[in-house]
Amino acid sequence: MVTYRAGEVSRRGFLVGAGSMAALGLGAAACGSGGSGGGTGAVRIGWVEPKTGRLAAAYKPIYVGARLALEDIGKAGGMLGAAVRVDEHDDKGSPASQPAVAQRLIRDEPAFVVGPTGSSQVLASVSALARAKLVQSAWGGSERLGDGDQFPFHYQLVYNTTQQARAAARFLYEVRGLRRIGIIVENSEFGTSIRDAVTATLRDAYRAAPVAVEVFEVDAADMTPFVRNLERARVDGLGLFTGQPQATVLILRAMAATGFHPLIVSHDLNYIKALEEFPRPLLDKFHGTTYRGLTYTDGERPSERVRALVERINAHPDTAGLGYSAVTSPYYDYLMLMAQVVKETGSADPARLKAALDRIDGFEGTRAKVSFTAKRHSGIADADVTIGTLMSATEPQSMGGVLRRRADGA
Amino acid sequence: MIAEILVPGLAFGSLYGLVAMGFNVLHRPTNVVNFAQGELIMIGAMVMALSPIGRLPWGLAAAGAMAIVALVALVEERVAVTPVLRRSAHAAGWVITTLAFSLLLAEAAGRLWDDQPGAVAPPWPLSLDVHEVAGVRFSSYQVAVVGTAIAVVLLLGRLDRSRMGTALRAVAADRDGARLRGIDPTSLTRRSFLLGGALAGFTGVLAAPLLLASVTMGLGLLIKGFAALAVGGIGDNRGVLVAGWLLGTVEAAGAAYASPGSQSVVLFGAMLLILVIRPHGLRGLAVQRHV
Hints:
CATH topology of the largest domain in chain A: Rossmann fold
CATH class of chain B: Mainly Alpha
Shape of chain B: globular
CATH class of the largest domain in chain A: Alpha Beta
Structural class of chain B: mainly alpha
Oligomer: heterodimer
Number of domains of chain A: 2
Order of helices and strands of chain A: HEHHEHEHEHEHEHEHEHEEHHHHEEEE
Strand content of chain A: 15-25%
Helix content of chain A: 25-40%
Number of helices of chain B: 11
CATH architecture of chain B: Orthogonal Bundle
């Protein structure tokens, strides 16, 4: 019990009073928290994005879709009748930062987490966040990230490396009928996994094997020796997989110099200024994996919803000419999906959100339909992964280089 | 096959040699190995590729890029090197301060530019078009890069024999002793950073047409330049150029002959072998000090 004297407070009384107030506050916090989880007030969203580091500007377009989704959610009245609260954390685009970022996210107690981006960062992040049972979707292509048993709280809204490999191998071998298929990949976890996946697909689906496999270091200065090896092996169809735009341009330069122009299926369909130096016949043979919903043909065009989103992406200042990266990012669809799930469950409790997500069947995303089960957290169907052409980025139907023409037969 | 790897090996090796020469220029008066050298080179390349300066005629653009990088290097000297050396000429605090400066430059670059590479055309009349003579494939620009690296070695040798070079050697040998003889080590350090910065900017300008300019290019060049420095010998510009050529050729051979993904093992294995056999560098110039 605290007694107060009229007109003054004793030092002892002040300390006891302050201690009691603090204890009451802590108690209230302990009883009423659950953060956004089950408590009242704004739904909290954890957000992991590189704000600093040498690739900070490069990641900005990837989060444009998420910012547009926040606008849409806000216009629709927020989540659970209140504006959402976003707690942004800078991971510097580094796997090493993920444990510290995860600690901050766990402390924030968000309803769910957006990001991080990049396979290595994602693997580090989901491992750190799994213990806290926080629902999360990040941009990582590893097949493991869609395994509901291994990562029960991570939901993958991008196609994985195996799906990408299947689409590439099918296009080269089956659609285009090429039999001398080569692979060139960077020496990284991504490169190794997609090389193995393409090789396995060729073996299992077509009883074939690549005639040449080249692996380059990510800082390789000269790609000519690798390209010459592919040429010597008389490769006519090539899987080119790297996360380094610089490496892609250097490989094309080596091809332009040697006159070796195989049909290429790549990982990245961003059309950048540095490609302008290459001969058109080489670029016309450059293709990449993409989402069927983001492609068009002479008789088919993307949905009005996609076209409206593309217009908003193009108008956003963070897009900075990289609209293709922005539109293929999973975060717009993820946030709209979470808004729907929160509305349907009437809760922001992560356990209830997970239970609802595990039953999602055919959610209409902008890029593709999304479906999950408790075991299968890889949400994109194989049928929604297709092949687009690079040079369609210069066509008016691409809406400023954001959409892509679907390759014939894909 | 040998003919195929020789020219690219020499051309890229020349770039590694130039990076190492930049180390030497800064190391001479300070005994500091500048860990920000890779990022200085990156800035030179990015200025050429993605800034309005790069749209000027090549000579002016190159001079502009060199001037900008020289100024950045001067800032580095003021904030990250001189304060450390002022406390103690033999302290190793510069390892952290130059590394921190490197991170600051990377951070600034990350805010200014995205990760898309920028192409830079070689200056007229040079080009990247491939010619073949007696089975050897090369571009005029590759040959020019090799020639330019040799010219830089000769120029630095000339500078070394000048009055400033003598003063630099005196400061390198004994900073306090040189001061007693009327030499101002701080001024020499400043001038060396200006020169080293300009050389880094020039290396970036030269590298951009071959490697493409990108915010990620600095680290790779730093590591390979450091390898050339270790193999060629600190302070020996001819040695580091030869070492650069050797490393460039081994790297090209590794890409052509070694099993996929093992080029780095081949490159650094060769470097280790050379250092075991010639611990003082290729030309074996052991550090001597006259007392």
